[in-house]
């Protein structure tokens, strides 16, 4: 089997394609959440806290000079990124929770058969006599 053919079989498996689609959609979802946090959530929070722009909050360790750039700890950007993470993690939690709920419904199929206590063959749940050994149930 040629390398190209093997790669094609690998790449066209359902789970590999599903994973690739999930990664692309996840990346786009991450960008949407980042915009939500930066452009929608943080401005009102900053306004409530006294006109604070979180993206510009930092601790300057060394001022900018002619020879070197400024060195600072940008904790405001960290707060934005942390909020991004919490929102994405919560969204993923909710999706997984719903998937598990739906999966439990699929697994909980109604029981329609039982075993005969005499011959241990499978019979209908409402049966009063085993069709295999003819014993009463």
Name its key features.
Non-ribosomal Peptide Synthetase Peptidyl Carrier Protein, Chain A; 9% strand; 4 strands; two-stranded antiparallel ribbon; mainly alpha; 137 residues
Q: What would you say this structure looks like, in words?
A:
This protein has about 140 residues and is mainly alpha-helical. The chain has one domain (about 5-110): Large-conductance mechanosensitive channel, MscL, domain 1 (Non-ribosomal Peptide Synthetase Peptidyl Carrier Protein, Chain A). It is built from 3 helices and 4 strands; from the N terminus they run H-H-E-E-H-E-E. The protein has helices spanning about 5-10, 15-50, 75-105, and strands at about 60, 70-75, 115, 120-125. It has a two-stranded antiparallel sheet with strand order 1-2. Strands 3-4 form a two-stranded antiparallel sheet. Strand 3 and strand 4 (about 120-125) form a beta hairpin. Helix 2 crosses helix 3. It starts with a helix and ends in a 13-residue tail after the last strand. The relative contact order is 0.07.
């Amino acid at each position: 089997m040629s390398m190209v053919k093997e790669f094609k079989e690998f790449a066209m498996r359902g789970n590999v394609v599903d994973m690739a689609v999930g990664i692309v959609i996840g990346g786009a979802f991450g960008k949407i959440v980042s915009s939500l946090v930066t452009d929608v959530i943080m401005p009102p929070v900053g306004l409530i806290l006294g006109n604070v722009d979180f993206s510009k909050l930092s601790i300057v360790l060394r001022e900018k000079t002619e020879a070197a750039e400024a060195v600072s700890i940008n904790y405001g950007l960290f707060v934005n990124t942390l909020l991004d993470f919490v929102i994405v993690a919560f969204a993923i939690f909710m999706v997984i929770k719903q998937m598990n709920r739906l999966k439990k419904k699929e697994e909980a199929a109604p029981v329609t058969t039982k075993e005969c206590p005499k011959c241990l063959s499978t019979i209908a749940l409402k049966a009063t006599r085993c069709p295999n050994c003819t014993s009463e149930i």
